[in-house]
Amino acid sequence: MQELELNSFMQGLTRRNPGQPEFHQAVEEVAEKLIPFINENPKYLDAKILERMTEPDRTISFRVTWQDDEGNIRVNRGHRVQFNGAIGPYKGGLRFDKSVTLGTLKFLGFEQVLKNSLTTLPMGGAKGGSDFNPKGKTDGEIMRFCQAFMTELYRHIGKDTDVPAGDIGVGGREVSYMYGQYRRIANEFTGVLTGKNLAFGGSNARTEATGYGSVYFGREMLAVRGDDYNGKTAAVSGSGNVAQYTVEKLTQLGAKVLTMSDRGGFLHDPDGIDSEKLAHIQDLKNVQRVSLAEYATKYPNATYTKNARPWGVKVDLAFPSATQNELDENEAQTLIDNGCILVCEGANMPSTIGAIKIFEKNQIMYGPGKAANAGGVAISGLEMTQNSMRLQWSFEEVDAKLQDIMKKIHSKCQKYGQEDGWVDYVKGANIGGFVKVADAMIAYGVI
Ligand SMILES: NC(=O)C1=CN([C@@H]2O[C@H](COP(=O)(O)OP(=O)(O)OC[C@H]3O[C@@H](n4cnc5c(N)ncnc54)[C@H](O)[C@@H]3O)[C@@H](O)[C@H]2O)C=CC1
Ligand SMILES: O=C(O)CCC(=O)C(=O)O
């Protein structure tokens, strides 16, 4: 059997998936680390596992028709990419954002397969969403869109088939509207979505899990070098679900968070964003839904810089927690030049391939999203468990399980990514996530 070679593999993938640069990027980052491992393990080469794993099980696209407050008929496009179901029901979030394309969801679905495998729980990988732009929409419009979206999606999902959840633009409010519509159409009360309200089957700590989990992962990376968060400064990007709970946990564990951001720019508070200030940000973002610029009117020591990102601020730690490709090669170099020792990704693929190369060259602690932000989907997995048992565990029980899972993910990354004197977490996460899915696919035979 001829060995795999990165360039020709990527040429074939690009040819088969034209116009999907984010999907190409996500596969390239994985393939670069996996191909040498596959060539050393011919069972994966012979079974063409990488070729099979980069082709989704299926993609579903559909029209979503809804009415705005003025009575105008609006049309969006919805998708669900059921990427790989070898180790469990498809699982992964829904993104509502004007930038969403099938290519975006294929990159996210591909990452999700490896991430879900790393959690140790039985979950396949999927992602879905729509090019619907929630910005400026009223509550009634959001509800009607969510109901219209679920009216088609419901026939493709199920508690043992595919269990969606939130992502950018989809939080507790949207999950509730979608769950209500599913229940109405299917006439069943099952755990078909996660991130639900605590009143109807949600799990304690799911809201906090991605941000907390990312900080727990960072704590494990620091512990390898005998270090911790105490007294360190941090830059966080984003101001949504993941960013908010990253800031909360970092602060609780002794770090001082200096930045957050949104689509319009970034906030720099040299005094640190403490719990009172974070509560103000949560009001601005979750209730008023306005720009972070408002923060500076209440806390005048802070500045809001328009159309810029936070990576030029001198910090010890960086937690990119907004979106993909929000940290490039030059910004990575600036972080390193300013003494940053750890980058831990709350977002999916926030660092460009060039940025990752800079982190690797400098051998800093770099936790890629598929490992560092896996706490969110892990607690979604535990929400499914609780729904099956018709039980609800306490916040403390779930948080303890989250900490344990993040430790196990870290250990798996170490096992496959230990190099001479440092840990290559990208290699560790990619191989660690791959092996379980690949072995299941081989066991199934040629399907
Ligand atoms: N919610 C979850 O449980 C999980 C989320 N993630 C990832 O974390 C990231 C953030 O997601 P959430 O906090 O859930 O979403 P969210 O909708 O609550 O917040 C998104 C944040 O990112 C910012 N943002 C979005 N697009 C941007 C752009 N193009 N440029 C600059 N800023 C932008 C928004 O202003 C907002 O602050 C995403 O990459 C998502 O895929 C990863 C694992 C689980
Ligand atoms: O909780 C889930 O199922 C989705 C989480 C997710 O979309 C992600 O990990 O990127």
Structural class of the secondary structure composition? Answer: alpha/beta
Number of helices: 17
**What's the number of extended β-strand segments?**
14
Helix content: 40-55%
Give the CATH superfamily of the domain at 208-363: NAD(P)-binding Rossmann-like Domain
End-to-end gap: 20 Å
Pfam family, one: ELFV_dehydrog
Subunit structure: Homohexamer.
Site (Important for catalysis): 167
Binding site for substrate: 91, 112, 115, 166, 380
Could you please describe the fold and organization of this structure?
Helix 1 packs antiparallel against helix 2, helix 5 (102-118) crosses helix 17 (425-444) and helix 15 crosses helix 16 (395-417). The protein has helices at 6-16, 21-40, 42-46, 49-53, 102-118, 139-153, 172-186, 206-224, 241-252, 275-288, 295-298, 329-337, 353-361, 369-372, 375-389, 395-417, 425-444, and strands spanning 58-67, 73-84, 90-96, 125-130, 162-165, 233-236, 256-262, 265-268, 303-306, 317-319, 342-344, 365-367, 418-419, 422-423. It has a seven-stranded mixed sheet with strand order 9-8-7-6-10-11-12, with helices on both faces. The protein has a five-stranded mixed sheet with strand order 1-2-4-3-5, with helices on both faces. Strands 13-14 form a two-stranded antiparallel sheet. The longest helix has 23 residues, at 395-417. Among the domains are: 58-189, Rossmann fold (3-Layer(aba) Sandwich); 208-363, Rossmann fold. The two termini are 20 Å apart. The protein is globular and about 65 Å long. The protein is 49% helix and 16% strand. With 447 residues, the protein is of the alpha/beta class. It binds 1,4-dihydronicotinamide adenine dinucleotide (NAI) and 2-oxoglutaric acid (AKG). 1,4-dihydronicotinamide adenine dinucleotide is lined by residues 166-169, 171, 210, 238-243, 262-263, 321-323, 326, 346-348, 373, 376. 2-oxoglutaric acid binds next to strand 3, helix 5 and helix 15. One of its GO terms (cellular component) is cytosol. Residues 203-445 form the Glutamate/phenylalanine/leucine/valine/L-tryptophan dehydrogenase C-terminal domain.
